[in-house]
Amino acid sequence: MNPGVKINILLIEDNPGDVGLLMIQLKESSVRHELFQATSFFDGSNICKNNKIDLVLLDLSLPDSTGFKTLSSFLEKNPGIPVIVLTGINNEIVGNQAIKAGAQDFLVKGQFDGKLLGRSIRYSLQRYKTQLKLEETARVLSQAEKRYVEAQEMARFGNWSMDIVSNKMEWTNEVFRMFGFHPNSIEPTLSDYLSYVHMEDKPRVEAFFEKTTQDAEQHDLEHRIVVDGRNIRHVVIRAKVNYEDADGKILLVGAIQDITDRKL
User: Fold this and answer.
1) Does the first or last residue of the chain, that is N or C, have fewer Cβ atoms within 10 Å of its Cβ?
2) Mind giving me the DSSP string for 76-133?
3) Would you say the pTM of this structure is higher than 0.70?
4) Mean pLDDT for back-to-back runs of 10 residues, the chain (264 residues)
5) Long-range pairs, 152-155, Cβ under 8 A, ≥24
6) How far apart are CA 134 and CA 199, in angstroms?
7) In the beta sheet, which residues pair with residue 246?
8) In whole angstroms, what is the distance from residue 189 CA to residue 197 CA?
9) Are the C-beta atoms of residues 156 and 258 closer than 8 Å to each other?
């Protein structure tokens, strides 16, 4: 929050005494602001509709709305405005529930001064800004992941990994489809993989996995798999040992691509 920028604060509170005290505390908060006031949920929503509001101080007990429904309804109607909840209940559980419900912070009436109010406002604006950045990052990553999955489908390409102790494998969706399965319909193991390898190629594939787990080099192999008991697919598999420092696991990580079309 830039100290030199004036922010528009909306106070939704129906108790005249609390309104008067909050106006004094806002002046003491060192936050440059213009104050908008409403005494009901309906009036507060209209002010947000007609003005650019940067932050809302919201009482949960209003003439036309009470409890956490007040907060959830306000956030539903005004998703782009950070909220500080004002409560008369000195209960940390209530405050934590308010934050879980979407508030940036909560203050107990009669237990904060102008300095604490100013700190809460600055914290809430910064927290909300950080939250928006995280949501945008998540959205971008989600789009990137979607494009990556689509690219794998078009290239008939998938990734996999295997715990070299248990031989349990993890496949991406395209690997499942390559072997004729719906994504995540089984918990694959090396034995499952080998069971689909063409009989004539199985000795080479078994040797491939054994050799790859013994050094740090990348190994490639072209072989055939038999899907649905009759469809022969040509694939290229690549693998390399990877040491997971976080949990001490040693994984075989790799990729597989269906190259059947090249053989036609």
Assistant:
1) C
2) HH-TTS-EEEEES---HHHHHHHHHTT-SEEEETTS--HHHHHHHHHHHHHHHHHHHH
3) no
4) 80 94 92 94 95 95 90 92 87 80 90 92 90 79 70 76 92 92 94 96 95 89 93 94 73 92 76
5) 153/177, 155/257
6) 50
7) none
8) 13
9) yes
d(CA 263, CA 233): 9
Pull the structure tokens for residue 1: 């929050």
Q: At what angle do helices 68-77 and 41-50 cross, to 10 degrees?
A: 20
Which helix or strand (DSSP H or E) is residue 2 part of?
none
- Say which residues have a Cβ less than 8 Å from residue 96's Cβ, sequence separation at least 6: none
Would you call 15 exposed, middle or buried from its count of C-beta atoms within 10 A (0-12, 13-18, 19+)? Answer: middle
**What local confidence, expressed as pLDDT, does residue 205 receive?**
96
DSSP bridge partners of 57: 11, 84
Task: Walk me through the domains of the chain, giving residue ranges and CATH numbers.
Answer: 7-138 (3.40.50.2300), 156-263 (3.30.450.20)
User: Mind giving me the DSSP string for 140-165?
Assistant: HHHHHHHHHHHHHHHHTEEEEEEETT
Distance, CA of 105 to CA of 25 (rounded, Å): 17
C-alpha neighbours within 13 Å on the C-beta side of residue 36 = 22
Both structure tokens of 84: 């500080």
Specify the pLDDT at position 165.
87
What was the pLDDT predicted at 256? 94
Measured CA to CA, the distance from residue 99 to residue 117 in angstroms comes to: 16
